[in-house]
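Full entry
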Amino acid sequence: MANQIAVAYFFFLVASAGIFYKLENRKAILLVYLGGLAFLPVGNYPLVEDPEVFPYWIVGGAIPSDVSINKSYLVP
């Protein structure tokens, strides 16, 4: 699984370089940012009992959150 994540990040890096080569910086920054939110995997965080230690709001729509805007809402 870790190998697949590394491959995804590598291909995203190559695609990002191509986007910056072809487009002007403003458009490339927007596309790479939204593409990263849409296609890159979220982090694998260890199980932590204390909610003050674990930032649960950064993993998108998979976990209930009190933050109304996250990865799953921003991209669409």
Q: What stands out?
A: The chain has three helices and no strands. The first helix runs from residue 2 to 22. Helices lie at 2-22, 25-39, 71-74.
